[in-house]
Specification:
By secondary structure, this protein is α+β, with helices and mostly antiparallel strands. It has three helices and 14 strands. The chain is elongated and about 90 Å long.
């Protein structure tokens, strides 16, 4: 009886190990399937197809709208060098719109308007929380980011900045310098929860509101002001 008892105990132990192994395999497969089918999804979007409108580049919630974010802006006072880069090439007045994405949001970013990529800069940084909604938001300017400066067909400029967070350490770009992109065209992918900031020049009026839920390639963030070509880019203010 002792030998049979020992044998049964060993058998049950081996079966338990096998069950645990296969349960882990199933969990891993389900996680991979979720990542491939849900996290990397690209849903159909109703694009306005209007060159006078700027759609949201990201899916998420607007957590900040800041006009004229200069070095005197209090919430960014410890990160002037980063902020200077964000608004470089935009002009003397700019409006910054920051969109927070959770891990459940679509993480492909789309072009807000028909435009040409004229500058791109990637900067390595820390692993801090980019989904922070605290008014200081200092951590977001210390993280890894990728910034792209676009010029629209009507000479208006805007910059899109991807800010990675603790878990998101990979930013994937699908466009190169001098590439032309259409409104809603996929331009980026960023892993897991992150933040996307777009900076418009003075010729664009932001009509979205803080805490609005926005949909990439569909929700209108801003519209063009009625200006002529001579007023669209103040050359003396562009570095």
């Amino acid at each position: 009886m002792n030998k049979i008892s020992i044998f049964m105990k060993k058998y049950k132990f081996k079966m338990a190990i096998r069950w645990i192994f296969w349960i882990l395999v199933i969990i891993i497969v389900c996680c991979i399937a979720f990542y491939r089918c849900y996290f990397l999804r690209q849903p159909y979007r109703k694009v306005p197809n209007d060159e006078n409108l700027f759609v949201s580049p990201a899916n998420g919630e607007i957590i900040a709208i800041i006009e004229n974010p200069t070095e005197d802006t209090v919430i960014y006072k410890d990160n002037n060098h980063v902020l200077d880069h964000f608004i470089d090439g935009i002009g003397s007045w700019a409006t910054m719109v920051s969109i927070m994405m959770t891990p459940l949001d679509v993480h492909y970013q789309r072009s807000p308007n028909n435009a040409t990529l004229i500058e791109e800069k990637y900067v390595r940084g820390r692993r801090r929380n980019a989904m922070k909604t605290d008014p200081t938001m200092k951590s977001t300017l210390q993280n890894e980011y990728n910034a792209m400066l676009f010029e629209a067909d009507n000479w208006v400029r805007y910059r899109i900045v991807q800010i990675a967070w603790t878990m998101a350490r990979r930013i994937v770009s699908f466009v190169d310098i001098d590439d032309e992109v259409d409104q809603w065209e996929v331009i980026w992918l960023i892993r897991f929860g992150s933040q996307v900031t777009i900076i418009f020049d003075s010729n664009v009026e932001v009509i979205a509101k803080i805490w609005d839920k926005v949909v990439d390639g569909e929700t209108v963030l801003a519209k063009m002001k009625a200006v002529g070509k001579s007023d669209e880019i103040e050359v003396s203010d562009v570095k």
